[in-house]
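Technical annex, item 7. During the second reporting period the consortium partners agreed on a shared format for inverse folding records so that results from different sites could be compared directly. Each record opens with the tokenized structure and is followed by the designed sequence. A conforming record, contributed by the partner at site C, is shown below for reference.
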């Protein structure tokens, strides 16, 4: 009976730990390593400090077609393809590296909530690669920006326009976004009002010396 290589096991544990930190479900770890269920469950508890979630993995291909998930998964897939073909990282290592880069890109410009839930979870990213491998999805190329976007397999390529070039009317109108816009508008109004008041009390029409530049829209109100 061939004994299992300690070095191989060690590298699988490292890989599994990294995937757990990125949010992988137990089923993903079972598919990507040869470690036993019990060892993986123990590792999960050590890394996360809680039991692994139970239940089915998200199966739907349709999820990847709704506009925001579609943009995020297309970005992720393009990073993954690059990693898998042009870097030494292959397969599950390419997945980990690509997902880390995706998280970096997805949190850019979201300084106010850098640790918010990413649109594309690690498990969904893994599912997406599987969907590509089993030819359930394809890349369709946008007629306008020429970018490759995730689409249903066998969807007609002709006349395809992506969700960035033609966003749906409700795009960007989430509750969080609406709250942020209201806050920004409120701050801008407060700044404006103070300027008007300062101008009136000083009896001058020119801008007060204290604020030589235009008020920034998103600056938080000092009050
Ligand atoms: Zn486009």
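Designed sequence (site C submission):
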């Amino acid at each position: 009976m061939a004994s299992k290589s300690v070095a191989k096991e060690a590298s699988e544990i490292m890989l599994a730990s990294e995937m757990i930190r990125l949010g992988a479900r137990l089923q993903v770890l079972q598919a990507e390593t040869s470690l036993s269920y019990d060892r993986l469950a123990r590792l999960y508890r050590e890394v996360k400090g809680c039991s692994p979630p139970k239940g089915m993995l998200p199966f739907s291909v349709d999820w990847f077609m709704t506009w925001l998930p579609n943009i995020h998964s297309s970005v992720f897939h393009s990073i993954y393809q690059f990693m898998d073909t042009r870097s030494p990282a292959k397969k599950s290592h390419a997945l980990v590296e690509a997902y880390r880069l995706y998280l970096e890109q997805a949190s850019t410009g979201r300084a106010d909530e850098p640790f918010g839930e990413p649109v594309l979870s690690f498990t969904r990213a893994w599912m997406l690669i599987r969907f590509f491998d089993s030819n359930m999805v394809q890349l369709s190329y946008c007629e306008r920006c020429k970018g490759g976007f995730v689409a249903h397999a066998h969807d007609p390529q002709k006349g395809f326009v992506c969700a960035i070039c033609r966003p749906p009317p409700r795009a960007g109108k989430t509750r969080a976004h609406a709250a942020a816009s209201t806050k920004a508008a409120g701050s801008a109004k407060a700044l404006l009002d103070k300027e008007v008041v300062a101008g009136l009390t000083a009896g001058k029409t020119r801008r007060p010396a204290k604020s030589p530049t235009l008020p920034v829209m998103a600056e938080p109100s000092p009050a």
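The mean pLDDT is 80. DSSP finds seven helices and two strands in the chain. All partners now use this format for quarterly exchanges.
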